[in-house]
Amino acid sequence: MIRLLLKIFKTKNNIIQTPFTDRDGLEILALGNKIQDKVKRLFKGSLAIRQVSAGSDNACEQELVALGNSFYDVERFGIHFVASPKHADMLMVTGPVTRNMAEAVRRAYEATPDPKIIVAVGDDAINGGIFKGSYAVLDGVDKVIPTHYGIPGDPPSPKTILTHLLRILEMSDDKIQKN
Amino acid sequence: MTIIIWILQIIFIPLLSPLCVGIIRKIKAKLQNRQGASIFQPYQDLRKLMYKDEVISRDASWIFKCAPFIIFAVTIVIGASIPLFTSFLKNNLTGDLLTVVYTLAIGTFFLALAGMDTGSAFGGFGSSREMTVSALAEGGFVLAFFTVALITGTTNLFVIADAGTLLATQFFLPAILAFIGFFIILLAETGRFPFDNPATHLELTMIHEAMILEYSGKRLALMEWAAANKFLIFAVLGANLFFPYGIAQSLSLGAIVLGIVVLLLKVFILCLLVGFIESTMAKFRFFRLPDLLITSFILSAVAILLIQIL
Amino acid sequence: MINNIVSQTGFFSLLLFYVVGAFGSLLFKKSDKMANIWQNIFASFGSLWGIFFSLGILLVGPDISFSASSLIFPLLSFSFYIDKLSAFFIFIISLISLFCSIYGLGYLKHYYKKYSIGMLGFFYHLFIAGMLLVVSSSNGLFFLIVWEIMSLASYFLVVYDRNDENNVKAGFIYLVMTHIGTAFIILAFLLLYRFTGSLDFEFIKASAGLIPSAVKNAIFILALVGFGTKAGIIPFHIWLPAAHPAAPSHVSALMSGVMIKTGIYMMIRVLFDLLQPIPLWWGVTVLIIGIVSALLGVLYALTEHDIKKLLAYHSIENIGIILLGLGSALIFSALGNQVLAIFGLAASLFHVLNHATFKSLLFLSAGSVINQTHTRNMEEYGGLIKYMPLTALFFLIGSMAISALPPFNGFFSEWLTFQALLQGIMSADILLKSTFVLAVGSLAITGGLALTCFVKAFGAIFLARPRSSEVTHAKDSSFTLSLGMGIAATTCLLFGVFSGYVGSLILKISASLNVFREVSLTNILVSNSNLNAPNGSGSVSAPALFIFFVLAIAIVIFVVRFMINRQQKIKIGATWDCGVDLTPRMEITATGFARSILLIFSGILKPSIQSEIEYHDSESRYLPKSRTVNMSVKDIYQTYFYQPITKLVTYLSLRIKMIQSGNINTYVFYILIAMVLALFLSQ
């Protein structure tokens, strides 16, 4: 038990540091719509993410869940996951939107209050990924709701998601290249 | 000078309650071997929520729209009526035990109604569970308070905090028993483990969170702030009624500063205790909770009977 | 002028209003509209007169007494004695009948062409006049006559809506139970007559010392059962949840708010006034009955989804709370602590007043809802706050008052009861102390459960979406209905905010009883805006609480909406439904809301579920066609209490019936034996 409690003081050694130099050269995938700078300034210290799974194969969900563990610890940046879209600032949609989930994604979008940021996580959500062209999917989130950013990868590792997320919040939209 | 103390009294609870919530989250994070958000994170969350738009359901009525204001105002009224760092203010108007209990019930009433108002399934069963726990907790709550009222012979909170310092040694055992009963009620009413998990995402395990699922923007900020206020109110009551040492009993700068420092220390210890309990214990199954609440009731009843024997 | 009102003429003119109202509405039987206007206008003016009259006696005047012996029956004398206690109850009766009569102007329109409005007016006025006479009569036989008038008039009002068979059955249960109670009361009065020589209350008061203590205990039990049946204590309460829902809503309000309080009035009169000095166990019995009634009343209320039955069970709960105050007053009086006894009695009387106001408000708004939706079942309501906003507001005020939420009046009388019980814990021996601790615990849990029940009731009726199609046709209450409810709601708020003044007036009333005439009242009768507990044990200021609260809400709204949050928009969207269409069946039902509490208390309530499944193919039993689930709570009073008694009485009657053989010679033989015995005993 004592060893368990002493682990509290060793926390700093385990955590993944996000080196800031890495992020300067990072290219963010923008999927069309722009976000105003003052919106991003609002969310810099505190971001509530609601994760919507639109028919995904759960790989991206597992990576998103891993964001909360003691290695990546997304909470230290003020980012936390919430249960209801009405509490959320950012919707992270995963999966190539299947037909049955199209309406649900739309309702989640409408339930989220403005200002909001929509991020498509994983190749499936950006353009259909490995399911592209199937009769059952709609090939990407931006076919259903206006999406702002994408995080590529199948699935993107938690480190990728974290660095992209932080970069999204930092960068001004005028400097981002459109895909 | 008295004006300054009154102003401090009114703004103390709303100002410091997000800090308490932040401290508990930090303790839980450290015990989970994480770094966690900073202890001032809840302030940033509230600030951000105040600047967001809202989405309100078309099935909601004026109760949904007005409930956050009423609930927050209730916590402000109670926060200004309880002894914080002074016991010489002698609030004869609203500083009564039973007034505090039933004014808190106004908050619970409107919270439960707001949960039912939008007609979602989650809000409905959230309200049902919250009212069940709250109804059974009232017994233990009133009896725990009555224990200290009987020790000091009055139900005025300020007089209890004042006189309690003198009678402490003789009535130590009943006070401890009543404090354990009160602590269980604190966990129940503020939605902490083992009654409720404040950070859960599973609606089947939610009690308080389920009722505020439909809120957004500034109303959500007020609801979360009111919940934090409620936690700090209970912590302050537990600290000052059962262990009122160090509270300022006279109008001198030294005594007041000491009172504030001692209060902050006591609240910090309580936050530590709650954080530790949340990290080491699992949430109970819903139908085990009445057993816990009846235990609190019996502990306080035994404490009352002990007073008269001693 | 005051002296004219506060005199015998004042009282007789009060009664005259109701007599004229009764016979006048009978005369106007043919025209529904005339009968309606006649009866309600007369009742309203009569109640206004009654309010002035009783306030005159309470604030200014001396006690009124009047006595006229009857020439025919030597024991009967039409005597009244209106002291402050009677005047208080006359005030309550008049106040509530004011609300109900104004409400009735609009409400009775739903009974036009269906039943006779004139007959309703006749019985309504007889009922109110009967109640007024009950609380002011001072002779045992006269009391029994007017008690019977009150009970019979209310019976006819209960079975007024006679097309529904349940109402007729309810009326029958009510008639039987009230006559059982009257039988016990008659026995008690007979015992009193036997040992004091008169049926006059004043005479009995003076010669209470002549009664031996064993007989006093017997009178206590008989009076408790008799008046308790009228008041609705457990286990004599079975008529309440049947009869109160059956009557028209404004009559239910009168019955629940006032008629059951006449039982309490007589308990105070007989136990506190007539039979002093009293032993300790009387108070303990009343306290325990109070604890049981309060807890069981609210638990049964939680299981109900018929709105008027729910309100009827809450009346039982509040009678329990009133008996908690009364029991503590009896205990303090037996222990010799008169100041605390005054205080306990005052707590009880304040709760009588408060319960009358908020219960009548709740019944009146429930009546509006039932009128518009034609059903009493809460499971078919929903979303009515959008169709009937004013009624919803009044029901909300009534719910807040009955759940003892400040700043409404229910909180302050429960505060006084808590303080009385607290004094009891402080000042008694260990066994009595435990009873008081139990009482405090039960009062606290009852308060919490009552809050739960009214969240359930208000939520199921007014919030969320409509659960059936009739509800969507509902319209808000008309003017007179809203006026009646509005006055009641304002009274709830005013009695709450000014509870300091009302409380000190009630302290004076309870101190005016004969048993307390030697107590020095200077240190407890401080009339200001605070409610003070004895021995400096606490105080609460209702106006300060109210002002503080209103200020806080105003400041919060101002700061948040106008200073912090100025550019944000509010969008009206759908309830978050996880992508699935929300149907009304997905909302929580009243039964579902209370299911958790039902299961927690299943030892007391004994719920049972029966389910039946009908299959498409009864042999393979894979595809169900329909499933019926019947959830019910076992009625333990019928099974364990009333049925055994009924069986015993029937058995004994069958045995005794054998005397009636039908043979004339046997009967002549009986006459011979009776004559011989009478001659023998008169030696």
Structure description:
The complex is a heterotrimer of chains A (179), B (310) and C (683). Chain A has 179 residues and is an alpha/beta fold. Chain A has helices at 2-6, 11-14, 20-24, 37-43, 59-66, 99-111, 123-127, 158-170, and strands at 29-30, 47-53, 79-81, 90-94, 117-121, 149-151. In chain A, strand 2 (47-53), helix 5 (59-66) and strand 3 form a beta-alpha-beta unit. The model of chain A has no long low-confidence stretch (mean pLDDT 83). The N and C termini of chain B lie far apart (41 Å). Chain B is mainly α. In chain B, helix 4 (97-117) runs antiparallel to helix 5, helix 5 (121-152) runs antiparallel to helix 7 (172-189) and helix 5 (121-152) packs parallel to helix 11. Chain B contains eleven helices and one strand, in the order ααβααααααααα. Chain C is mainly alpha-helical. In chain C, the strands form three sheets. In chain C, strands 1-2 form a two-stranded antiparallel ribbon. In chain C, a hairpin with a 6-residue loop joins strand 3 (530-532) and strand 4. The longest helix of chain C is centred in the middle third of the chain and has 36 residues, at 338-373. Chain C is globular. The interface between B and C is large, with 81 and 88 residues. Strand 1 of chain B pairs parallel with strand 5 (570-573) of chain C.
How many angstroms separate the termini of chain A? 52 Å
Largest sheet of chain C: 2 strands, antiparallel
Q: How many helices of chain A in DSSP terms? A: 8
Q: What is the typical, i.e. mean, pLDDT of chain C?
A: 89
Helix percentage of chain A: 25-40%
Q: Helical stretch count of chain C?
A: 25
Main attributes?
heterotrimer, A: 179 residues, alpha/beta, 6-stranded mixed sheet, 8 helices, 6 strands, 34% helix, C: 683 residues, mainly alpha, two-stranded antiparallel sheet, two-stranded antiparallel ribbon, 25 helices, 7 strands, 69% helix
